[in-house]
Write a structure and sequence with these properties.
Helix content is 19%, strand content 36%. It is α+β, with helices and mostly antiparallel strands. It has a 15-stranded antiparallel beta sheet that branches. α4 crosses α9, α7 packs across α8 (447-458) and α7 runs parallel beside α9.
Length: 500
């Protein structure tokens, strides 16, 4: 019974530690602002920044575009968005507040139109930790809003005394992905030179996610503008969207006389789009003026990755490409040797690879000694995998004291599949009324893995073999592990965002 308990404890710990991968809990939203515009946003970090960190900045300046709907016709304005936000408290306290500021300066010189806006917010936050999840709730209050709109000879000035603004955000930090949803609403009053008011009411819904391989923010904003005399009315739906991802491609060497056959390159891609539709009847507008779109396409930096060498023994193997990519990304670090592709992948090695794939911070345990904490009986401080197991354990999701990690035990398919789904935080898709998956060998799947395996089936990442079996208790080889980890990375690059 004692040995059975230790094995079970190891499985539970393996499933739990992946939560550590969520990492950064700084503010997820804000790169587009909250006023119906788009910016180039922040590029995803290069891999080299994991080794040479870029200087942290609390102020970011982005290229920015917004459509202005106050005039007779909609006008595209271009300029900058400056976001100032110091979120250090998010990483150090369970509750508190921090300031946000959004400075927008945009113009259309040809049509002699300009907009200058400065919005200050105080954002309060609280954290709540639950098994396999970590949530942050934020609520923002307006502390200052100054804005001037100029359209030829006409000037509109924001009346702060009658302007209101609210923003509320819920973030769910799953093991590998930070998902968030935000509700924004404001009523802004603008006065012309004769003190005639214009009322702009905005209600918006924002959804998005961020993780090491991609991020998306999608907004749907409902804007209504009217004047008390009813001479001006406009009903507009605005859909800003920002997406970024890290793509990979192979480049063969030229000339032939060089020490490597080729390199993998990583491209940091971004694009922002804004679609709008004026929904009320306005005979003076053309169909293109009533519904159109604008975009920002920033430069896409390219980063050279590690050169995959000494892997010629993989030629023709079905997992050759997966293994080479993981070596280039620094996810596989074992010294290559013929036959390794057929060796069993241990639980400890699999967690290390996932830590590297999801950029888990292990710096706290890089120089362990005899005084370093020991949580698992089979992971002493001088074990080469100690930094990765301990960094994963630090999330404190499972009490491992006195237990064993089973670090050298080969990982099974059901363990790896369960981790896969927990990393992307989509276990809820596997909720079922009966404990039954569609696979023929369902009876062989452990109860603790069925929900995750069903979720993976529903999103198309777990398909089974040609006979409809998932082979849950079969060990994973290093080649199969490379395939599933690379599949996870590719899913996080592109597929996860298809529903946004």
């Amino acid at each position: 019974m004692k040995n059975q308990w230790k094995i079970k404890m190891g499985i539970l710990t393996l499933l739990a530690v992946v939560f550590m991968f969520s990492g950064d809990i700084r503010a997820a939203e804000g790169e587009l602002g909250f006023f119906g515009g788009i910016s180039e946003g922040e590029s995803l970090p290069k891999i080299i920044e994991e080794f040479v960190p870029a200087r942290k900045e609390t102020k970011k300046v982005y290229q920015y575009k917004e459509m202005l709907f106050f005039g007779n016709k909609p006008v595209e304005l271009t300029g900058t968005l400056t976001v100032s936000m110091n979120t250090d408290k998010l990483a150090t306290t369970d509750a508190g507040s921090y300031p946000e500021e959004y400075l927008i300066n945009i113009r259309n010189e040809k049509q002699n139109v300009s907009l200058d806006r400065r919005v200050r917010l105080t954002t309060s936050f609280r954290k709540q930790e639950n098994p396999y999840s970590f949530q942050v709730i934020k609520d923002s209050k307006l502390t200052g809003w100054v804005e001037t709109i100029k359209m030829g000879d006409k000037t509109l000035t924001l009346d702060q005394s009658t302007t209101t603004f609210s923003k509320s955000t819920a973030e769910d930090l799953t093991p590998g992905v930070n998902y968030y949803t935000t509700d924004v609403s404001y009523v802004a009053t603008y006065l012309d030179e004769d003190k005639k008011p214009y009322y702009a009411t905005m209600n918006g819904k924002i959804t998005g996610f961020k993780q090491p391989w991609s991020k998306i923010e999608s907004q749907v904003m409902e804007l209504n503008i009217n004047s008390p005399d009813h001479k001006f009315y406009r009903d507009v739906q605005i859909k800003p969207r920002l997406e970024a991802n890290r793509s990979i491609y192979y480049e063969s060497s030229d000339p032939f006389q060089i020490s490597f056959s080729g390199t993998y390159n990583q491209r940091l891609e971004r694009k922002a789009t804004l679609a709008y539709e004026i929904r009320n009847e306005e005979p003076g507008l053309t169909s293109k003026e009533k519904a159109n779109s604008i975009s920002i396409l920033p430069n896409n930096p390219i980063e050279k990755l590690l050169i995959p060498k000494k892997l010629e023994f993989l030629s023709g193997h079905w997992a050759e490409e997966d293994i080479k990519q993981l070596y280039s990304l620094g996810v596989y670090t074992e010294i290559p040797h013929s036959g390794m592709q057929y060796e069993a992948m241990s639980r400890g090695e699999f967690v290390k690879a996932l830590c590297l794939a999801m950029n888990v911070d292990t710096s706290k345990y890089k120089n362990p000694n005899k005084k370093s904490p020991i949580i698992f009986g089979d992971v002493p401080w001088n074990h080469p995998l100690y930094p990765y197991i301990m960094a994963a354990y630090d999330i404190r999701m499972v009490d491992g004291t006195g237990g064993f990690f089973s670090i050298d035990t080969p990982i099974t398919r059901q363990e790896a599949f369960a981790i896969y789904i927990r990393v992307i935080g989509l276990e809820r898709l596997g909720v079922m009324t009966t404990l039954q998956t569609p696979f023929k060998d369902d009876a062989d799947i452990a109860p603790w893995a069925k929900r995750e395996i069903l979720a993976g089936y529903k999103i198309g990442v777990i398909v089974g073999d040609n006979e409809g079996n998932v082979k849950p208790t079969q060990w994973f080889t290093k080649a199969e592990s490379a395939a599933i980890i690379n599949r996870l990375i590719n899913y996080l690059r592109t597929e996860i965002g298809q529903g946004y």
